[in-house]
Amino acid sequence: xxxxxxxxxxxxxxxxxxxxxxxxxxxxxxxxxxxxxxxxxxx
Length: 43
Known about the structure:
This protein has 2 helices and no strands. The longest helix has 8 residues, at about 30-40. Helix content is about 30%, strand content about 0%. It is mainly alpha-helical. The radius of gyration is 19 Å and the shape is elongated.
């Protein structure tokens, strides 16, 4: 299956709206804090 097959039937209309980035976060921590906690420190 190629990109042509995947994109078949996809179209862009003038009715589309920019709604921003969808976000669901129930952690209570910022992304930076979460990444810092999951990134191993160098020896």
